[in-house]
Structure formats: C-alpha cells, structure tokens
Amino acid sequence: MKVDRRMLGWGLLMSAALLLTDCRRADEVDPQDENELITTVRLNFTEQGTTTATTFEFRDPDGEGGNPPTRFDQIKLKPNTSYNVTVELLDESKTPVVDLTDEIAEKADEHLMVYTATPATLLTYTYGDKDSRNFPIGLTGTAQTGTAGRGQLKVQLRHQPPVNGTAVKNGMAAPGSDDVNLDFELIVE
Amino acid sequence: MMAITHDRYKIEKRIWAVACYLLLVFFVPAAYAQRQGCDCFVKGVVRDKHTGQPIPGATIAVLGENKGVSTDMNGRYQIERLCPGQYELECRIIGYQPYTETIDLIAGHEENFALAEDEIHLKDVEITAHRTDAPISQPITTLTGSELAQTRGQSLAESLKGITGVTTLQTGSNIAKPVIHGLHSNRVLIMNNGVRQEGQQWGSEHAPEIDPFIATRVTVVKGAAGVRYGSDAIGGVILVEPEELPIGKPLSGELNTVGYSNGRQGVVSGTLQGGVKGIEELGWRAQGTFKRGGNIHTPNYFLSNTGIRERNFSVAAGYRKKGFGAEIFYSHFATELGIFSGAHIGSVTDLLQVIKNREPLVKSGFTYTIGRPYQDVAHNLVKGEAHYHFADGHRIQWVSAWQHNDRSEYDLHRPRNDSLAGLNRPELTFRLTTFTNDIVWDHKPIANKLAGQVGISTLYQYNLMNGRPLIPNFDQWNVGAFLIERLVQNGWEWEAGIRYDYRYLTTYRLVNRVTQRDEFRFSSASGTLGVTRSISEKLSTRLNVGTAWRAPNVSELFSAGVHHGAASYEEGDPTLRPEQAINTVASVVYDNDKFNWEIGAYHNYIARYIYLKPQPEPILTVRGAFPYFRYTQTDATFTGIDASLGWKMTDRWSWKSKASYLRVYDQKNDQYLVMIPPNRWDNQLSFNIGEAGKWQKLFVSAGNLWVGEQRRVPANSDFAPPPPAYSLWNLTAGGTLFITQKQQVEVGLTVHNLLDTAYRDYLNRFRYYADEMGRNISLRLKWRFGA
Description:
The complex is a heterodimer.
Chain A: H1 2-19, E1 40-47, E2 53-59, E3 71-72, E4 74-77, E5 82-91, E6 98-99, H2 101-106, E7 111-118, E8 123-127, E9 140-145, E10 149-159, E11 177-188
Parallel strand pairs in A: 4-11
Antiparallel strand pairs in A: 1-2, 1-5, 2-3, 5-6, 5-9, 7-10, 8-9, 10-11
Chain B: E1 2-4, E2 21-27, E3 40-48, E4 59-62, E5 67-70, E6 76-82, E7 86-92, E8 99-104, H1 117-120, E9 123-130, E10 140-144, H2 145-149, H3 156-159, E11 166-171, E12 175-180, E13 188-192, E14 195-196, E15 217-222, H4 226-229, E16 236-241, E17 252-260, E18 265-276, E19 279-293, E20 308-321, E21 324-338, H5 348-357, E22 374-389, E23 395-410, H6 418-423, E24 428-446, E25 450-467, E26 473-489, E27 492-511, E28 514-534, E29 539-550, H7 554-558, E30 560-563, E31 568-571, E32 579-591, E33 595-614, E34 619-621, E35 624-626, E36 628-648, E37 653-666, E38 671-672, E39 680-692, E40 695-707, E41 726-740, E42 743-752, E43 776-785
Parallel strand pairs in B: 1-9, 13-16, 31-36
Antiparallel strand pairs in B: 2-3, 2-9, 3-6, 4-5, 4-7, 7-8, 10-15, 11-12, 13-14, 15-16, 17-18, 17-43, 18-19, 19-20, 20-21, 21-22, 22-23, 23-24, 24-25, 25-26, 26-27, 27-28, 28-29, 29-32, 30-31, 32-33, 33-36, 34-35, 36-37, 37-38, 37-39, 39-40, 40-41, 41-42, 42-43
C-alpha cells in the first residue's frame, strides 16, 4: 500500500535521526572541580623582635559540605604584645596545592582582608600593605593585643570586583561579598 | 459565494485544547425563500482540521429548538424544517471542544431568490473548535487572539500571570517560572508543541526555554493531569501550541514589535507561512524572535546587570493527503540572562547586611551590557509527527522528538588566576539530551457515545555536567502507557482513565575521584475520573478526581552545596520516594449575555511531598556557617479557590474580577510550608469605544492587582519576614487598524505599575535584595497580512 510505504519511510528517517546524535555517555564523569576554591586559611603571627611564627589554621580540604573542616585552630596570643601578621590562602583540593595568596596580591585592587576582634579591646589590626589606588589589602599587617581576655577574631576576605566596569573597592568592608568569613576563637592570655 | 470570517480573538475559557481541531462547514441554503413557512435547512460536513478527515458521530444541535442530528460515516449531517430566523448551532464530539455558532437564516435571501441557489443561498461559516486531549472535567484556561497578543514580548511565565490560580516564581526580573495552584518547577509540566519540555526544571532559577511567539494558543490545565501527560503533572500542565500549518493556503504572515520603557527593552518577532504552489498537500512556516533589554529600573534605583538577550527561531513543514499526514518542526531558543549582581552574597553575614540595608549597596546606571553573573541557555527541539486516519474512524498518531538543553551559568567572580579567567569558563554547565516517543491510538466512537484513546510514551534522557559539583551525571528510561475513555449521554460527560509509568534512573558521580554508579527504579499508577454536567445552556458543573506522580529528581537525591542567593546549604537524600498527588477539583461555570462567572475549588493532597527541611545544626564552611537544609518528605495539602466574574454593564462598560485563595499545610509537622503564593485579587474595568474610521475594537481599560501579605509561613524559617501586601495599577488602550481586508495592524499601549509603587513579592527569590520593577510603559504593534 502506498500510504504504508510512506509511513515506513518516515519511520526510517526518524530512526536515522535518533542514531546520528551525540553519543557521549553519562557514565564518563568529568572530574568536577570548582574553578577556584579556598580550602585553607593560614594566619602567621610573629611576635615583633622575634622570628618564630605561630600559625593558626582553618582547613576544609574537600571544600564546603562533604566532610566537615578538619582543622579550626584557637588563636592564642600574649597580652599587650605586637605581632607581625601574614595570611596565606590555599586550595588544597588540587594537586599540586594552589597558593591563592599571590593571585590575591596581583588582584589587590579588588580584594580586602578584614580583621575584626570581639570585644574590640582584645586586638587591633593595622594594615601593612596598599594596592595601586592606595587602599589597604591586609595580606600583611601588624596586630597589637590588649589586656588578657577571650573572644573572637573574624577574618574576612572581601571580594570587591568592579560593577559594570566601575571599581568599587573603597577601603571599607561593605562593597562586594565574602570569599572567606571565619570566626576564629581568640584567647589572649 | 460569500465568505464570512469570524474573529475569535477573545479569551476562550473552557476551551479544551490540543493537537488537532475540526473544521465545520455549514451550507445554509435558505432555499426557496419566496415560499412562506419553515423550509430552511442547514447541512454540511464536519472535519478534523489537523487530519482533514471527516468525523462521524458528531452531534449538531439547534439550541432551543429541540432539533439535533448526528453526522454520518462521511461526517455529513442535515437539519431540516427550520423557520427563517437567527439560530445558535452547537457541535459536540467526544474528545473535541464543543462549539457554538450563530447562524442567520434570513439575511438577504428574499431579494435574490432568482439567482442560482449555489451562488447566493449558500453561506460558508468556518468554525474551528479544538480537539481536546486535556481532561474535559478539569478547569482549563486558554490564552489566544488578542488576550495573548496583550502579553506579547513577555516570557512564557509572565504571560500566564493573568490567569486565575497562576502566578510566577521569580529570580530577579528576568527569570520567571509558572506556578499553578502553588506548585512549580518539576511539579508543572510544559508541553511545547506536543512534546514534554525537558530542561533543568528542578532549578527555581531555570526559566522555561520556550519562545511564546511560537504559540498562537497557550492553555493552562489546572490540577493533577498525570494520566494523559505522565509524571510531573502534579500542579497542572501548560500547553504551548502553534497554529495548524497552512497546508495549501496562500502566503501570510505577521510582524510583532514590542517596546518597553523599563530596561529599554525591544522585541521583534516575525512569522511567514504558506503553502507550496502546485503541491496542495504541503505547508510551511518560519518564525524568529529577537529580544534585547538592559538594566531594569525600580522606582528608586537601577538594578545592575539585569539585561537580557534572546534569539529564537523555528521552522516547520507539513504534508497531508487523505488520511495521512506528517509534520516536522525544529526550534532553537537561545538566551543570555544577566543576574542582578547585588544578589550575590558570600556568607550569611552578607545577606543579613543587605536585608538590614533595605536596598542594594552598589547602584548602577543603565547599560545593555551583560556581565557576570549570567546564564547562557540554548534549547533545541526537533520534532516529527505522523498520523493516519483509518477509513473506519480509527486514528493513530506518532510523535517523536529530540531535545538538547545546554545551560551554562557564570558566577559573579572569575577565577583569580589569569590563565583560568582568560578561558571564561562557566562555573556550571548542564547538557541534557532527551528523546521522546509517543504513540496514541484513538478508537472510533462506539455507538456515537463512547470515544477514547490508548497510548504509550517512552523517554530516554541523559545529563552531562561540568564544573562545580551540583548534580550528578545521569541517564534514565521512562515508559508509560495509558487508556482514557469518554462517554457522552444526556447532558452528562463522563471521563475515566488509567496510566502506569516506570522509570529507571542511573546516576554517575565522583566519590573520592572514583565514579560511583547508583540505580533507582520508580514506578507508579495514576488514575482520573471526571464528570461534566450541562445543567442548561448557560450553566454547567464539573468534578474531577485525578492523580499524578513525580519521581524525585537528581537534585533532590544528590545536591550538596551552598545555594548562593539563598544563603543556605542544601543537601539531597538518595532514599527519597516518589510523590503521589490526589487532586479533587470542582467548578461551576455560568455564562449569559450579561454575566459570566466561574468558581472552582480544589484540594490537592500530596503524599511524600519533597521539601527542604531546616536542620538544627548549621554547616561550617570557609565562608562561615550556613543554615543547613535537607530534602525531606512530608504529606502536604494544597487547598484553594479560584473565582472569576465578568459583568457587561452596558454595551460599552465591562468589568472583570479575578480572585484566588490558597492555603497550604504540612500535615505531618502541623505547620505551613514556605514559598506559597499569597492571595490575590485582580480587577479590570474596560470601556469599549468600538469603531472609529478604519479603527476597530478600540478600548481603554484600567486595572488594579492586589496581592496580600503571606501570613501563612512557618515560624523562624526565613531570614526576613514575607514582604507586605501591595497594590498595583495599570492602564491599557488598544485597537485594530484595518488597512485592507487582508492587512491589519493591532496596536496596544500598556502602563504597568502606573504609580511607580515600590514593592517586593514573596515569590521573588531576590526579595531580600531589591525592589521589583517600577513603572513600565509598553507599546505593541502587530502587523498581519494575508490572513
């Protein structure tokens, strides 16, 4: 029958169309990694006049979720003491480990580290570096501790990229969003 | 011969949609009018327009005359002994939309009795009524003609907002998803030109990848309709349907242009269609749309990075001869959507800061440039359809389709590393490929009373994922079979159906750098039982009890991560079981010259309803602690009322009022559920100017939309309380300019948010960050030619 042949032809055409499509398989999973991940925040405190650094660390090697962070140190400092402070930011989910500190230094115009102690009398942070527009960065600086006490040190990395081509970094914490926001326990004794 | 074109550009409520429609040709020879008395008659043939085949067993009745006949095996009918006068003819066929048409059996016949009967006494009235695959006993609203034209330029979800019981779930101003009776995403099924739309529907920020300009009819079926359409049709179904292909017809087309003041957005869409000279059996259509918009303005500030760019096109061709027909359709949808950059937050502290601030910290000016964050989405659909009408009335249809959805999401922040940043890779990519096949067999009506269809649907799908881990790769098989029967008797229409679905899902994900494979098997039976009773020509009632099911999707099974924008850590649960909905809908419809109203009440019980349940302990990340939510199941009820009233006060003044009420409750935990649309009331007062010179259908209207505050929310479940109630005013004016009989320009001017009210909507996920769009003036021009 004429009509039947036409239907058959149509069917063959459709089947051919199905066969000729993308043959990639779902079971070939691409290694899924974030473009960039901060897994580790390392704070190095060196008492002024000495060379020994004490390191305090937050570490979540598999990123957010999954396993809980493996390390979240208490920051223990002496009262009424000046420290040189540096910070290191790492992506330890990659092999080899990626050090993001240099990249932040390169893009200093859109990054700001913010250190906030609660209560404020525990620790005062002074920036020791500046970007091209003379705003602080906070990768290096000094910390002056106050009298003994317990509290928290909030460490933030504010990511402040330009909005619609206009720079927004103004030295204040407000613009942008958090790439790091950690409340370290702070013990001054 | 005189041809009368009947304009049907009005909202056709209760039109039960789909696929094909029938062509009715009435030959009305008011024979021998010089003879006094009742010798007039009406005769003709009833055809299915899509297949061109005559339909036996259709009933044709002259309303109020107690006269009715059925069409014979060749679709022919004849009603005799009618007196001269005006009559209303009604045509009913099971499985088709009933249709009424006014027939004048006097006009101009007496004086021309000397002419040949064929030349003057025959009157062709072309009536199109639509075949209904949708359940006849469920509330259905169709947007078509000028009602649809008024929504042109908007996204699919936005254009359905005017329908009672339908709202939107938004992510900023550009991304909108339709919400039916409080349900959305994977709980609403969209049928795009007869094919299940398969994108990444699970995401609340994933808008349907459909160009509404493709459709000349958009139908919303409210309530569970799982039997005909398969899984996911828990809240309802949206049918997006293009016009029938113009087989053997002359060239025609239309050009739509829309301009919006807000976002300085412009939309252009054109359609060209026709037959092929010398080959009567062919028809074709080509269509394309271009859209470009910039930053949106709220009453007080611009929203940075809220531009949009969209380029879509589709082509279709069809062949039809005798009982056989075939059609091929290809559509391409591509959009780039800027996402308001002020909504990117890194931590809970950031979010609380924005909420406290009441407005975005960084306000920008106007630009068309789309920067990060943005989405880049492309959707391709190839569909083939073939049908054959057997001489004895059976019909078989096969629809086969391939879809490819390619979604890339770009975060606000590029990688800091320059070489990585230079690649400008999206942070997330999903590529979903879907093959569907549907075969439906319509059996011939038994005793002119019982009609029905049996069908089988298959789906094969695979998803490939790159970037930040979010959902796993997967492939899945779906098989479903259904049977629906409809019975018409003495003003009662019964409908019953059953369906069985089976789904086999395999997921592939990396666990400690090793691929882990998980298998899931889901299956479910669905059923529907409905009845429609026409109490009189004006009053009818409907009752439907239907079930639908939905298997948990991969994001509900496996997601794990921080949802930016929502500042929450969300985690899936691989032990989830399918949801099962039992939906009861009852409605009463009344329609006379002065009043029309419809009241519908529904109760949707969803067993094992999947939702995000707050967990007591937060999740600690490098960006601080995030509230922790896990996908959990409960039993939920969605109870509501939709009411609409139309009142034609005078020839010129008319008033339309629509209200919807919804209450959603978590039965297991004795509390309300989050993100449920608040109650709303919409009023529109119209003044019909009528004709002026070459202008027709001139009107002005003013309206108000009131949306209440959602007070039914669980305690302490949100970062900020639901926004207060708001009230928006709008103005519309429009008309049609007839240049020639075959060329018209339809013009519409609308002002949305007339008073530039600053407000926020509970169902906008960006309600924490910024106000909604301010005043927006739009001008629409639609030029039609050849039709």
